[in-house]
Amino acid sequence: MMSRQRRNLEVISISALDLFASALGVFILMSVVLFPYYLRQPSTEKDLQGARANQAAAGISLSDAQQVASEAQDAMAEAEARRSKARDELQRAEASLAEAEQVRAVSARRVKKEPEKKAADDEEKGRINVGDLDIVFVLDTTASMKRVIQDVQENLLGIVRVLHRLAPSLNVGFVAYRDRRDAYLTRTFQLAPMTGGNLKRIQVFVERLRAAGGGDVPEAVDSALSVAKNMPWRTTALGWIIVVGDAPAHRGNQNKVFNMARNFHLYAPSGVVQRRVSAIYTTRKRYGRGFFRKMAEVGGGDFVDHQGRMIESVLLSILTQDPSSS
Q1: Is pTM beyond 0.90 here?
Q2: pLDDT tens by residue, 284-318
Q3: How many CB atoms lie within 10 A of CB 130?
Q4: Which domains does the chain have, with CATH numbers?
């Protein structure tokens, strides 16, 4: 009985020792396994703290970068606004410059035009070279002259105004002529100053003229020139007769016309002023051209083949001559 109890006790003792030994072994094994981690724990904490510091620093840097980027965007937006404003200012400046250039160009043209206009006026006046002008228009009013008569009626006022620019003191007369056996041989408006009511009166005279009569080729040029030559010419004024027609004088009277034109031209009342006879030929037919050309030649005036408006032909018959020359 005693032996059995002893054996049971020994078995229990041995089991307790085994259990203890096993526990000790497990402890030792765990110590061996966990000891390196235990040794590394301070370093890990340090690394963790460093990582956290780096993360914080990175967070600060990112915030700074975002702020810098935002500031850069603001600066770019401001720069773009300034650039846009600068473009607008440039466009306004260019527009102002263009407007100023236009005004300057217009002003320059005006400044340039005035002396040129004055010089042109002085040149035109210089061609006549006198302050006073007496001029008589001698106009064929037979049927073939209908269009020319209408032209004179429409432009008489303009002709007188232009002549007044060339000669401040202006007297104008008018002789309308046809031929024998017509309603009249000549009709006359005496030389008179183009002041007061005389301009209106000569207009009425011309507006009442009608194209009629004729029939044969020659016309009474000699009778009309004789009436014009005997008008009250001023002794101190340039005297000018302008014969407008499309047919010569009758053959037996042509030399009479040439002599009257020559004598009128050569007669100088004061020894200084000139008198002239010009001729405006209004048709393209050749039979009367030689007569009108010679009349102007001996009369010291100019011959004009009429084209266009009568005012142009009248001015050509005056301005192409130097009135101061003999």
Answers
A1: no
A2: 888 889 999 999 999 999 999 888 788 888 887 77
A3: 17
A4: 132-319 (3.40.50.410)
